[in-house]
Amino acid sequence: MRDLSHPLTTGMQVYPGDPAVDLQPALELDRDGAAVTALHLGSHSGTHVDAPAHTVAGGRTMDAVRLDELAGDALVIHVPGLAHHAVIGVDELGALPDRVPPIVVIDTGWAQHFGSERALSHPAVGVEAARLLLERGMRVLCVDTLSPDPTDAAGVADFPVHQLVLGADGLIVENLAAVSDLPSQVRIGIFPLRLAGDGAPVRAVVFDD
Q1: Cα–Cα nearest to 150, from 171, 125, 133
Q2: How many CA atoms lie within 13 A of 193 on its CB side?
Q3: Comparing C-alpha atoms, which of 159, 195, 201, 196 is closest to residue 55?
Q4: pLDDT of res. 155
Q5: How many domains are there within the chain?
Q6: Whose CA is closest to 85, among 39, 119, 53, 122?
């Protein structure tokens, strides 16, 4: 089993404008007999899933998302060597089958830049590419970047791919790690906190055959 999640740590990179991540001791073992950590973080911290409610008024919240939507066979599409701010079009997706699994992972190689300024200039998924994947059966779009849409350093951006995927009642997983050497077909599990909200941090794993 391989972990595809970034650890949640104080001061880690978050999407511009999101709450900072801060983990502080609330109880201490020596003093209180048990260790408890107080958490301050946004629902889209680290490796996380976006529920439809993230960008769609009246959309489903995370507590309404079934775990079986986030586990199963996945297609991994590798698109290495992309330039800053590149857009992944239909051609970059390569030869797709007529039907793709419900979960699609797009590996840009940009996970290696998570935590740095360069992460903000990540490649983005083009709307037509996302639409084609939806038409062929995708329900969960997973990326190794801060967003499938372009990220603006000021936190001001349009979210056309979010609107497309979440508007179709699908899900988006962002900030996957360690996906660059995965085979094109894997079994994946993405396990979010069951928050009654717009998204949640996840533990994402690939299962061994």
Answers
A1: 125
A2: 14
A3: 159
A4: 62
A5: 1
A6: 122
Query: 47: which 2 tokens?
Result: 């490796």
The residue segments making up the domain with residue 150 are 2-207
Q: Please state at what angle helix 127-135 crosses helix 160-167, rounded to 10 degrees.
A: 10
The percent of residues above 90 in pLDDT, for the chain, comes to 96
Amino acid identity of residue 25, one-letter, is: P
Residue 92, Ramachandran bin (φ over 0: left; ψ between -120 and 50: alpha; else beta): alpha
For the chain, the 3-state helix, strand and coil shares in percent, each to the nearest 5, are: 20, 30, 50
- CATH code, domain with 118: 3.50.30.50
Global pTM value: 0.97
Distance set, CA 99 to CA 94, 133, 173, 199 (Å): 14, 9, 20, 27
Pinpoint the alpha helices (H) of the chain: 29-32, 127-135, 160-167
Q: What is the DSSP string of 29-90?
A: HHHHSS-EEEEE--TT-SSEEE-GGGTSTTPPPGGGS-GGGGEEEEEEEE--SPPTT-EE-T
Query: Going by DSSP bridges, is the β-strand pair 22-27/36-40 parallel, antiparallel, or unpaired?
Result: antiparallel
pLDDT tens digits along 131-171: 999 999 999 999 999 999 999 876 667 899 999 999 999 99
Burial class of 205 by CB neighbour count within 10 A (0 to 12, 13 to 18, 19+): middle
